[in-house]
Amino acid sequence: MDIFRSLSMGGAKFDKNRFKDDLNLFNASSSSSSSSFKPGSKLGNGARDDAQKSSAPATTLIMPETLDFFGSASKAARNNDADNVAVTASAVRQGKAKAEQSGEDSDEEEQEGPDGSSSKKGKKRKREEEPLTKATLPSFLKAHKLKLTGTDVPMPLASWEELETRFKVGSWLFKNLQKWGWEEPTAIQRGAMSVMLENRDLLAGAPTGSGKTLAFLLPLIHHLKNPAKDGFRAVIVSPTRELAQQIYEQLRRLSEGRRFRICVLTKATESTLKQDPALRKKYDILITTPLRLVHAIEQEELELDNVRHLVLDEADRLLEQGFLEQTDAILAACSHPELRKALFSATLPAGVEEMAKTFMVDECRVIVGTKDGATETIKQSLQFVGSEDGKLHAMRSLIQSGGLKPPVLLFVQSIQRAKELFHELVYDGLHVDVIHSERPKAQREGVISAFKRGDIWVLICTELMARGIDFKGVRLVINYDFPQSVQSYVHRIGRTGRAGRQGEAITYFTKEDAPYLKTIVNVMRQSGCEVPQWLVELPNPSKKIKRKLKAKAPERTDVRVAAGSSIVGRREARKRKEMVEASKRRKNLEKAPSRSE
Ligand SMILES: Nc1ncnc2c1ncn2[C@@H]1O[C@H](COP(=O)(O)OP(=O)(O)OP(=O)(O)O)[C@@H](O)[C@H]1O
Question: What are the entry keywords (predicted)?
Fold first, then answer.
């Protein structure tokens, strides 16, 4: 059914002309909104709003160069004949010190080119094309918002070409990479790949949607070189099955033509490994969730003693209560003395970093942007909805005002609430579905494919979908229930605004959520969103309060109860009841024999 028709069934009017871009799914960009603490008002946005209303393509106008991870803001021709530069962190430090001494600043340097007529941007791009030197490194790091820490940290990649010239990455792998047509490496790819290619332990943090997956996959394949039939040599751990599957798909594409044996550990593959011990030797790479892997280790269904590369994706989640024990068991099972470890996430709380240091050896730390920061291409806002019943009202207003820009991800705090909200919205005639861990695997996969295809326009989800999942076209994330931690907020909203695209995130809050508001306000400010002064002046919640929220989701009135108790809810329920009764009457009439018969 036409989505605009079905959306209209909920009482909303959709103008096809106005939403013609929506028809062209996964061709994202866009947005709207303002302040004051009353139900329905949105708090946030600001500067970017004006920019987004401009007629030029969003990426070129809005994105500052420093945030242009994907080079989409500038298509300057590149001319990379990069010489090999094996500069180490001592060089990094020397160069930095020199730059600081001379008061060198990247922006100033750009204005001082020999050719006074060329633009600042042009000069900067040109300088990036050249091989990095001690002198150019500080401004390069600044331009890419890269922070490198550790002893002798390898020099970042100046260009893709350095993969071949400097690291001798096989031409087959380089060709596979080129198939994506990505003009240049993202900041995290520049910083993290060189560290992994030099076979060092790594702790890497970079915003959501900034290409961390490729940053660890490419070095990993490079090190494995060829299929070896020597048992698992690389293990990638991710907190969810969905993310493991997504990593597998990217890995398969990147290793095309090399016949690596890759195993995504599921109940089915686990039982195959159990039945056929010889098979275990045939695999090269394992992608798994922690629980499944620990089960397989305990059942002695596989061995990890030949593993040389261990990647923990969404590392902070894997080192949190709930997964920590399993991650510990995995680390213990990967017993090869030459094991290298790489930890990646968009959020790395201090406690996690401390823990990581206890099992990493002489690690390099590569951070892009502000630690635990949100992606800056996401327009964030907070919306006060009064109490629970105000949320559905806000949702329906959003539909009616045309602000619901599909595809939309809608986060709630529990499976129960996800189910309830689904039942509430499905009768509104929305193309809506729900995903949570109680749904069988096949159904979950089906929902994800349908959402990717654009058959589902609003996907209700739990924390299951908050991390890592790469739906490129998501235009709006709604935090229907307030997130339980800053990390959860950053990852949830990070499902939009990926790969340099624009996105929007709205967070509903009630009176009960107000004590935690400041944590989100801080993230919003850090990522460049304007927020009203009174929000800035709110007190930060204490550590104790934050811990309490993280440990236990707040009690909330059931979605259905809340829906029934609001005026709008009652009106909608009555309308739906009337529609159902009218439809029954029509059917009965159709069934009734006509008099002539
Ligand atoms: N160099 C690049 N240029 C352009 N696009 C890229 C580049 N590298 C990766 N991408 C694309 O960017 C998107 C996001 O990548 P990825 O899923 O690896 O992000 P991430 O940093 O792991 O995000 P998250 O923290 O949410 O897991 C993907 O669709 C990927 O194909």
Answer: ATP-binding, Helicase, Hydrolase, Nucleotide-binding
